[in-house]
Amino acid sequence: MYQGTAGWRVIWLLLGALAEFLGVTAGVVLTALGLDLFLIPNKIAAGGVSGLATVIHYLTGSPVGLTMLVLNVPLFAMGIYRLGLKFGFRSLYGTISLSLFVDGLARYLPVPTHNPLLAGIFGGVLVGLGLGLVFRYRGTTGGTDLAAAVLRTYTGANVGQLLFLVDGLVVLFAGFSFHSWELAMYALITIFITSWLIDLVQEGISYTKAFFIISERIEQMAPVILQEMNRGATALQARGMYSGAAREVLFVVVNRSEVTALKDLVYRTDPHAFVVLADVHEVLGEGFKQWQKYRPPLS
């Protein structure tokens, strides 16, 4: 029995590893398409190692993918030195494959547009979707995220702030090199779109809402929610810092289509209730999205 369970565990782990490999590969291909179709041909250096490699490509004629790989070598060396072998090598596949796809696909792909605004928007969409997939499947492509992690060990600053700083310096360098601040501004648009889509792919579209309800009539409200809306509710123990009084906060998660109905229900039960409504990007469990497949069994 134990051997059978162990065998299934190995199979689930292998399927999970295969899914992560395919997910990272798909993300890398989308990122390479965004660079080759839109960003590189239009001189849009949207931060990161790929942006720096784009500037160097136009200054020296060196292939963008190869330049990305060369630029990542010292970053990997510093990553291994400051963060350990595991951190450095887990980015190896994504970094090498992205460099190979960028140079390998470039010779076969047309340039759909030379309008820098369109190129910045569609390039940002593809790169954002691609990097979002890479990160969702626990891969990385080296670059500025690795540089920011290394800098953090020296400065202690927030990684997001360091990423913004590094990408900003690349955009400034591109503006000086191309003698065009318009291209730099288009690059900023691309960075914004890319960042937004990375978060969207990792966190998902907000299709549910969370209610935090503070009321003196929690006991009357909870059964109505259970019966009329067929939704679960959880009472959280809390204490008012001004009054010092103990009270309960009702936590309820509903679909967007149920928001108005729950508001009406709360108001009908207690017109003086204090309600906080928040976006929820992903809900896993009964009544909502099921857990993803290929998860190893717990026993």
Automatic annotation (TrEMBL):
Primary residence: membrane
Compartments in which it is found: Cell membrane
Signal peptide: none
InterPro entries: DUF2179, N-reg_PII/ATP_PRibTrfase_C, UPF0750_membrane, YitT
Record's bilayer topology term: Multi-pass membrane protein
Superkingdom as given in the UniProt entry: Bacteria
Pfam families: DUF2179, YitT_membrane
Membrane-crossing segments per the record: 12-35, 55-80, 92-111, 117-135, 156-177, 183-201
Gene Ontology cellular-component annotations: plasma membrane
Keyword field: Cell membrane, Membrane, Transmembrane, Transmembrane helix
CDD domains (alphabetical): YitT_C
Location of the DUF2179 domain: 231-285
PANTHER family: UPF0750 MEMBRANE PROTEIN YITT, UPF0750 MEMBRANE PROTEIN YITT-RELATED
UniProt-recorded name of the protein: DUF2179 domain-containing protein
Organism this protein belongs to: Desulfotomaculum copahuensis
Phylogenetic lineage: Bacteria, Bacillati, Bacillota, Clostridia, Eubacteriales
